[in-house]
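Researcher: Structure for this, please.
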Amino acid sequence: MTTDPDFMRLALDAARRGLGQTSPNPAVGAVIVRDSAVLATGFHASAGGPHAEIQAIRALENPDTARGATLYVTLEPCSTHGRTPPCTEAIQRAGFGRVVVGATDPNPRHAGRGLDILRTAGIVVDAGVLADECTDMNRAFNRWITTGMPWVIAKTGMTLDGRLTRGPGHSPWITSEESRLHAQRTFRAAVDAILVGGETVRADNPRLTVRGVPDARQPWRVVWTKSGDLPTDAHLFTDPHRGRTLVFRDVPIADVLRDLGRRGVLTVLAEGGGGLHGVLFDAGLVDEIAFYIAPVLGGGPVPAIAGVGCSTPQEAVRLTGVAMERIGPDILFRGRVESLVLEKPLASRYSANNL
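Model: Predicted structure, token format:
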């Protein structure tokens, strides 16, 4: 027998199709069901476009089949006018008999309001089905809507001994082609901004573009530099995406993230180098890590994470939800920052002066 969680998983699958495309809106999926049969699905594809519920209703072969049917949606339907009308009104007009919701609206001003509106209209509402999974899908949106700060992922490719470079005469690539393609699809194509330090621009002249992922949005390319000494002919300033490049000179890193949040940036992929990662970790601003580790002992001079680091076990960065995946010859190590205790003022912990 098919259950509510089964149909909510289908809605989650639909929502994933919008990941990386909807900012500053959340990714949402919807499924319409009658007599245990799926009639239509929908997902939110872009900010300003129709929401998942509307897309699912439009996908019905016969709109009248919505009457008395059940709507499964991963996030509480919106109840206020924004760039689109409230989904609660469309749900009532369609005549649904039941609405099953995964996560409630994380915005304290709206949380639960949409559910109350539907119940008042006589629609049966069941909330909290696969709530953890539905909430986690939009962890970046949840952070941004409640704090104004984006979700920061520290991503790097490193040797087994934790280095970003190898000795002279070696290829600049540490990880495999498989890992690089995986990073493009999994991270660059799904974030709103890519952050690097000034030294990375000077040393590597990166493009920071999304490659190998058709129709992916180009994220903002953000350079954080203390000196402002950046080559004017760098790819970031001369290529077709130069209008998507931002430079922050001698600005506290937390203020950089706040500025990005005001621009509607929900997710930031910090690609380094080691100095930038050290600053972010020292400031307690990393939410998640994605380390591609190659089976190489490189002994290079640049560590994956520089900065002040921790002087006591209590200051150590601890991870939760740790997962490892084999990508070609490499290992992708992922986890979320569980706790980071700061005992020194942030200003005194800034390092990596060559940025």
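Researcher: Any notable elements?
Model: Residues 340-354 have pLDDT under 50 and may be disordered. The longest strand covers residues 318-327.
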